[in-house]
Amino acid sequence: MGSTGESGIDQVTGKVADLGRDIGEYIKQQRASAKISLRQLSKLAGVSNPYLSQIERGLRRPSAEILQQIAKGLRISAEALYVQAGILDVVEGGPLVDAIRADEVLTERQKQVLLDVYESFRRENAASQGSDVERAPESQEG
């Protein structure tokens, strides 16, 4: 059991302590780059100033709902915060996937359909070329 194998429960428990700090740091960085004060973000996100401060310092782990409110306040995709918080797995794919996920006009359903179509094309091309295109974030142009 003490091996480096990936036991689901052991893996999750080992990461829980770092997740609060990681997401807090990420939110703080995003807030700084957006040039928004803690108080402003608190008002925009509808989250109390002390609670937001505790999240940024890694003392509290926000729920998915709170992360969504914070993302809206920062004007970034909730998915970015979910990935950072360990709620969603990182989806590889490069700038196209990032652009689709960040688009505020598309619904979550529309984003997922676009990503599914994109991934199906990548798998189809990988199979026809006999190579592992899925591991490479950049695909051939043209």
From TrEMBL:
> What are the protein's UniProt keywords?
DNA-binding
Magnesium keyword on record: no
Record Pfam families: HTH_3
Boundaries of each HTH cro/C1-type domain copy? 27-81
Q: Which CDD domains match?
A: HTH_XRE (cd00093)
Superkingdom of source = Bacteria
GO MF terms on file? Answer: DNA binding; DNA-binding transcription factor activity
**This protein is called what?**
Transcriptional regulator
Originating organism: Actinophytocola xinjiangensis
